[in-house]
C-alpha cells in the first residue's frame, strides 16, 4: 500500500496507469460479452473469465455489475461520437443520427443493455440513475443544438429546438424498446427516417 501513495510519481504512477489500462480492457471485453450473450449473459463471471481474472479480482475494478455496465455505456457514447465533428452550433448532423440508429440495429446486445439499465434506473438510489440523468441533460442540449443547426430557431411545425429536443430523444430511445420486443415487425432505421420526415428533414439510408 505504501508503494501506491509514495510521492514523486515512480511506482505509484505506474500502478495508476496499469489500473486504468486494466479497467479499459475490462470495459472492452465486457462489450464483447454483451454483444455475444446479451444483457443477461453479461455476468461478472463471464467478463472476468474473458480478461483472465477471478470474479473477486474483477470486483476490485468494478464493485457491481451495474457499475461495469454503466462504464460500458459511457464508453459506447464516446465511441459513437468521438470520431465525428459536431456542427457549428455544437450539435450533430441529423444524417449522423440516422446512421447511428442503423448502427445500433446491428448490435442488439448493447442496445438491450442500455434499455434494461435505463428502465431500472428510474428507481430511487439505483447505481445507474445519476449516469442517465446526466446523460439526458447532455443529450437534450446536443439535440437542441442539432435541430437549431438544421432548422434555425423554429422547426417547420413551429416548435423551438429546445421544445423538440426531448421528442427527438424519446423517439430514438423508444424505438429501441419496440425493436427489441419485435425486431421483425419494427424497422428501427426506417421508422427513425420517417420521424425525420415529420420534422421536415429527410435522411436517406446509407449505401
TrEMBL record:
Keyword tags: DNA-binding, Repressor, Transcription, Transcription regulation
Record region (Disordered): 1-21
Domain HTH tetR-type per the UniProt entry, residue ranges: 20-80
Keyword check for DNA-binding: yes
Cited InterPro entries: BetI_C, Homeodomain-like_sf, HTH-type_TetR-like_transc_reg, HTH_TetR, Tet_transcr_reg_TetR-rel_C_sf
DNA-binding region: 43-62
Protein name: TetR/AcrR family transcriptional regulator
Annotated organism of origin: Streptomyces cuspidosporus
Amino acid at each position: 500500500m505504501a508503494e501506491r501513495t509514495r510521492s514523486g510519481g515512480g511506482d505509484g504512477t505506474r500502478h495508476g496507469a496499469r489500473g486504468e489500462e486494466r479497467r479499459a480492457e475490462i470495459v472492452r471485453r465486457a462489450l464483447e460479452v454483451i454483444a455475444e450473450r446479451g444483457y443477461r449473459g453479461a455476468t461478472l463471471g463471464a467478463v472476468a473469465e474473458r480478461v483472465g481474472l477471478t470474479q473477486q479480482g474483477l470486483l476490485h475494478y468494478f464493485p457491481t455489475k451495474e457499475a461495469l455496465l454503466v462504464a460500458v455505456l459511457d464508453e459506447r457514447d464516446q465511441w459513437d461520437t468521438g470520431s465525428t465533428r459536431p456542427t457549428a452550433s455544437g450539435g450533430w448532423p441529423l444524417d449522423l443520427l440516422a446512421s447511428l440508429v442503423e448502427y445500433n440495429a446491428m448490435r442488439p446486445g448493447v442496445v438491450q443493455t442500455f434499455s434494461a439499465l435505463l428502465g431500472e434506473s428510474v428507481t430511487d438510489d439505483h447505481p445507474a440513475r445519476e449516469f442517465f440523468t446526466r446523460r439526458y441533460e447532455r443529450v437534450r442540449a446536443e439535440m437542441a443544438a442539432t435541430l437549431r443547426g438544421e432548422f434555425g430557431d423554429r422547426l417547420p411545425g413551429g416548435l423551438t429546438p429546445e421544445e423538440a429536443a426531448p421528442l427527438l430523444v424519446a423517439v430514438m430511445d423508444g424505438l429501441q424498446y419496440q425493436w427489441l420486443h419485435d425486431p421483425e415487425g419494427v424497422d428501427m432505421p426506417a421508422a427513425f427516417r420517417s420521424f425525420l420526415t415529420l420534422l421536415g428533414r429527410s435522411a436517406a439510408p446509407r449505401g
